[in-house]
Amino acid sequence: MSDIVSLYTSGNDAVNRAGFNEKFTEINTNAVPTARKINNKALSSDISLTAADVGARPDTWTPTPGEIGAATVAVYTATLTAAGWSQTAPYTQTVSIEGIGETDSPIFGPAYTGTNDEKIAQCEAWNMVNEADTASGSVTFTCFEDKPGVDINIQIKAVR
Description:
Blueprint: H1 2-9, H2 13-29, E1 37-38, E2 41-42, E3 73-80, E4 91-96, E5 107-110, H3 116-126, E6 131-135, E7 138-143, E8 152-159
Antiparallel strand pairs: 1-2, 3-8, 4-7, 5-8, 6-7
């Protein structure tokens, strides 16, 4: 490389530029030895590498959430029955939910059904539910002051 710098920066510009161009062409032509290979492909011309050549996934690969460490969502349903609440405040009711875990922090919400009047009653009942605690295979709901007088269908989403 120092040959190129000295040719370009010294003495007679016309001679040095010609020498520079000649040296540059020589270096450029012999920059990569043609005997060298990448992934068993000779470097005598341009090469194309495929995903398989470098151990990458093919462009047709669609990852699963688990393969890329993404969260998964599990959706459960349950019913809080009017008769299932304990007799004294704070009122509690435990429902079995197969698959829910102790470390889950699920999102709970009502799944209203029936007539408009029934949905209003379910909404009022749901507003009495103040707390939910998960355990392995169950959730315990708590009402601090009043307990619902109607059944409430609920949907539970657990993000893991």
